[in-house]
């Protein structure tokens, strides 16, 4: 086997990305502290052609050097909006017909591999602060809460890792 070159990958430009069909998913970041986590979410959102990202509360917005360091330019291809709060973003997205899926460990959550994603439906995936998670107000306003199954000694994953796993799962069910 031979590694693919950049030419072999046939990557599209940022302008072409903006015109490309998108996965009907908006990623909502609720008070995410780390600019590097934000940049990583942008990069993953680009990879899986996410519609846009809602940056809420204290979540940093481009242009920021630390976002760019991990996004590698994806902050220029993926659309984004800033909201004062994640609750405001969720309420707006619900009015636009999105199903609100919060990624959080709660009583009654659905394990990611058991969540039934339906083609033709629009989703908002809410991810929370590195320490506090998603705010209880947003959990209360959600249509469902999805949890990643874990068996180790830690009870959570880094938000950027969680976002990547969840975006991939939605991409696999909605786009492949």
Taking strands numbered 1, 2, ... along the chain, how are they ordered across the largest sheet? 3-2-1-6-4-7-5
Secondary-structure-derived class:
alpha/beta
- Helix fraction, binned, reads 25-40%
Give the name of the CATH architecture: 3-Layer(aba) Sandwich
**How many H/I helical runs?**
8
Radius of gyration, whole Å = 16 Å
Provide mean pLDDT, rounded: 97
Output the CATH class name: Alpha Beta
Concise structural overview:
This protein is an alpha/beta fold. It has helices at 6-9, 14-19, 35-47, 65-71, 74-77, 86-95, 136-140, 159-175; strands at 23-30, 50-56, 79-83, 98-103, 110-111, 122-128, 144-147. The chain has a 7-stranded parallel beta sheet with strand order 3-2-1-6-4-7-5, with helices on both faces.
Could you walk me through the main structural features you see in this protein, from its secondary elements to its overall organization?
This protein is α/β, with parallel strands linked by helices and 176 residues long. It has a single domain, classed as Alpha/beta knot (3-Layer(aba) Sandwich). It is built from 8 helices and 7 strands, in the order ααβαβααβαβββαβα. A 7-stranded parallel sheet has the order 3-2-1-6-4-7-5, with helices on both faces. α3 (35-47) runs parallel beside α4 (65-71) and α3 runs parallel beside α8 (159-175). It is globular, with a radius of gyration of 16 Å. InterPro entries: Alpha/beta_knot_MTases (IPR029028), rRNA_MeTrfase_TrmH (IPR004441), SpoU_MeTrfase (IPR001537), tRNA_m1G_MTases_N (IPR029026).
């Amino acid at each position: 086997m031979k590694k693919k070159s950049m030419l072999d990958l046939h990557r599209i430009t940022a302008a072409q990305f903006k015109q490309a069909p998108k996965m009907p998913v908006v990623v909502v970041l609720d008070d995410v502290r780390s600019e590097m986590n934000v940049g990583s979410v942008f990069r993953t959102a680009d990879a899986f052609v996410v519609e846009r990202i809602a940056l809420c509360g204290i979540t940093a917005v481009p242009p920021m050097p630390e976002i760019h360091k991990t996004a590698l330019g994806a902050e220029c291809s993926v659309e984004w909006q800033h909201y004062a709060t994640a609750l405001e973003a969720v309420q707006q997205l619900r009015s636009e017909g999105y199903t609100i899926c919060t990624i959080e460990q709660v009583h009654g959550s659905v394990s990611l591999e058991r969540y039934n994603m339906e083609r033709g439906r629009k989703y908002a995936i809410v991810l929370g602060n590195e320490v506090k998670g998603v705010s209880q107000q947003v959990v209360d306003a959600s249509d469902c809460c999805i949890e990643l199954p874990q068996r180790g000694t830690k009870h959570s994953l880094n938000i950027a890792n969680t976002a990547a796993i969840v975006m991939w799962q939605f991409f696999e069910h909605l786009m492949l």
